[in-house]
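TODO from last week: model Heptaprenyl diphosphate synthase.
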Amino acid sequence: MSNAFAEESGGPAVQETGPFGLPVDSELAAGSRRFLSSVEELLLDSVRSDNPLLNEASKHLVEAGGKRFRPMLVTLASHFGDPSAAGLVPAAVVVELTHLGTLYHDDVMDEATVRRGRQSANVRWDNTRAILTGDYLFARASDLLADLGTEPVRIQARAFARLVRGQIEETTGPVEGADPLKHYLQVLADKTASLIAVSGQFGALLSGAPASTVDTVTSACEKIGIAFQLSDDILDIDSETEESGKTPGTDLREGIRTLPMHHVLGGVGSGPDDARLRELLAADLTDDALHAEALALLRAHPAMDRARADLHRVAEDARAELLTLPANAARDALTALCDYVVTRTG
């Protein structure tokens, strides 16, 4: 990874290790810690309820922790305007509550058993309570959002519509004759990247940044969100450890087709094992022997290089957009994030 801070800010800066182990300007890091501490306080306050079960269930994932990636993007984006502006902390809590609410619903749909190292809410209680808890978090997000003005409400509503559309499109699959890879990338943008884009958009907008800056930050953050998901696709197949947060090959075992698999099925490669790999990708891979065979073939397939090239292109597109913004420590942190998302896949 390049030292973005020294290269792009005109000279070396005092740094420390920040999120994802990235070098961070010390002043920016201190401000971000204060911001995220305020976010955590408001987040816990927002999910409290006088109903004991709802109170326990709504705190279940909040207290499990997490990177708070979306609130971090809110505060970084705010440095293109006034980072002390009112509304930034509530906006960060809005995006985190929305994200957490989707996790409750996702675990029900996926029949998950574990989330962030804890028993998932649908297992600890049941599907109905997990769904209702997710709904409660959405409601609490809306309550905070109402104080931020009509434009943030509109932005959130449109992002939420994209989240739902992405989930429906993922569930139903591509229509007959549609390009499966194009469909997958659109699902990824809607379901994953849309809320990451809103995080940057809220930070820039509520800090009073110029409209052109808000648009650039929004677009770059969406691309960063896409890049993170593509890197997760690659790590799920290629890592020997659990770098992706899941046991390697989990997507294969669960029949989830990700970017490298779409490339294989779309005709990338012409090796002697291609027909066998395509046959396996269409099969039930819950069998350990078949799963191991498919994983080994996929790791050695040129589709992996194609997926890495796709990831690099998306990250570089985000980086190029960010470099049109005024130079500051926040821009350096965001461009370093673009480098990181590529290097994490090796």
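Done. The beta strands are 15-17, 23-25, 114-115, 118-119.
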